[in-house]
Specification:
alpha+beta, Ribosomal Protein L22, Chain A, three-stranded antiparallel sheet, about 40% helix
């Protein structure tokens, strides 16, 4: 299953300007916020979480919340996703791969999910 999402970085900039860390906490946990070095990074994280929910076929909501998806980085800086036990069990998820990219004013997230 494949999911894609794109977000204009200025949209994330406005969220951060208006709400600061409180805005980031709507979709990121504290460990993820520590990884955010710029509005561009935050936008990429948003895009990949949205892309995951689209690949799952649910969108963000009751079945799959932003906080069921946690982004972390490998020792080489590659982004990875950790999922809540609820998601793994309810959807029989075997593996997830992701990519985040930025081009000009946009951040793009792509996710593939392998199910049982």
């Amino acid at each position: 299953m494949l999911g894609l999402d794109i977000i204009k970085i200025s949209r994330m900039s406005r969220l951060i300007e208006r709400f600061g860390d409180k805005g980031l906490k709507r979709f990121l946990c504290n460990d993820e916020i520590l990884l955010v070095k710029s509005d561009k990074t935050a936008a990429g994280f948003w895009a990949v979480k949205e892309a995951f929910s689209k690949a799952l076929g649910t969108g963000i909501g009751k079945e799959c919340s932003f906080h069921d998806i946690r982004i972390y980085k490998t020792s080489k800086g590659a982004p990875k996703i950790a999922l809540s036990k609820k998601l793994i069990e309810n959807f029989s998820i075997l593996d997830v791969t992701l990519s985040i990219t930025h081009d000009g004013d946009y951040a793009i997230g792509g996710v593939t999910i392998e199910l049982e």
